[in-house]
UniProtKB/TrEMBL annotation:
Belongs to the ABC transporter superfamily. Drug exporter-1 (DrugE1) (TC 3.A.1.105) family. This is ABC transporter ATP-binding protein. PANTHER family: LINEARMYCIN RESISTANCE ATP-BINDING PROTEIN LNRL. GO terms for cellular component: plasma membrane. One of its GO terms (molecular function) is ATP binding. It comes from Robertmurraya siralis. Its main location: membrane.
Length: 310
């Protein structure tokens, strides 16, 4: 339904997006993950026809939206990271304004407003000014505005950042309902891996402007099929010990945690004795040692060298 082909964007001499190829099928929910600066927002802007690519194309139902952006704009809903509402207007007035921009007929607009307000759980607050709303309520109205014209494709860019748990749960339920009951195609970015695991059929991981991995959860976890992940709790920090662990054969990655180290090593490697010896040499006690079951967060960290929230 929606596809990018070798999509690239260069700003002056910096390539923000580099030959990105991704697709979203009809009724599918797809995650787009990456650390800050990976190029996600630039990619979304090009898919939304807000930004013209330097090269490549975006296809909607096989037709180029670069040549004909009107085709996707009629059926696309976008929920941006920043709140895009008028603070001095009420929730209802905001939705009425956006409904007129979408050219929804006056006969249908009021019923659509009530429908989306019910969907985001804010019918009872519709006459109140946006400036009196909490951050979570504003984000819910932001989503309602994107749903007024019954979009076939919905792009959500960090829709739950910095909001209360109640609003977050409501947003996740709304997205799930749109995808499962209305077969709305979803492209979803988030800093919360658990949201992506809950909502998305497939995931693209992006770093330095490129797609570095893609697939469903099982396919992404298979990236770490040759590795094991260990958490080591230490009595104190030692730079010399960290450097020594990084040099151990079969140790692929070492990251510092709040109270120790997170180590990714080749399966069936025998680095523990070397670690124990190195800790004794530096006067560091190993308090706890545990192997963990790999998660999508581990895959992300392995591919980008950063946690999702970095």
């Amino acid at each position: 339904m929606l596809e990018t082909i070798n999509l690239s964007k260069t700003f002056k001499d910096k390539k923000a997006v580099d030959d990105v190829n991704l697709y979203v099928n009809k009724g599918e929910s797809v995650g787009l993950l990456g650390p800050n600066g990976a190029g996600k927002s630039t990619t979304i802007s090009m898919i939304s026809s807000l930004l013209k690519p330097t090269s490549g194309d975006v296809l909607f139902n096989g037709n180029s939206i670069i040549k004909n952006p009107a085709e996707i704009r009629r059926v696309l809903g976008v929920v941006p990271q920043e709140i895009a509402l008028y603070e001095e207007l009420s929730a209802h007035e905001n939705l009425n304004f956006f409904g007129e921009i979408y050219k929804i007929s006056k006969g249908d607009l009021e019923s659509r407003i009530q429908e989306v307000l019910e969907m985001v759980g804010l019918q009872h607050r519709q006459k109140e000014l946006i400036k009196t709303f909490s951050g979570g309520m504003k984000r819910r109205i932001n989503i309602a505005a994107a749903l007024l014209h019954q979009p076939k494709v919905l792009i959500l860019d960090e829709p739950t950042v910095g909001i209360d748990p109640q609003s977050r749960n409501h947003i996740l339920e709304t997205v799930r309902k749109l995808n499962e009951q209305y077969e709305t195609s979803i492209l979803y970015t988030s800093h919360y891996m658990e949201e992506v695991e809950q909502l998305c059929d497939r995931v693209y991981i992006m770093d330095h402007g490129s797609i570095v991995a893609s697939g469903n959860k099982s396919e992404l976890l298979s990236i770490l099929s040759n590795d094991d992940t260990f958490h080591v709790q230490l009595s104190k920090r030692s730079e010399k010990l960290i450097d020594a662990v990084r040099l151990i054969k079969d140790v692929r990655q070492v990251d510092e945690t709040e109270n120790g180290l997170r180590i990714i090593a080749k399966k069936r490697s025998h680095f523990l004795s070397t670690l124990v010896h190195g800790a004794e040499k530096e006067g560091v006690e190993i308090i706890h040692f545990q192997m963990e079951i790999p998660s999508l967060e581990d895959v992300f960290l392995h591919l980008t060298g950063k946690s999702l929230r970095d």
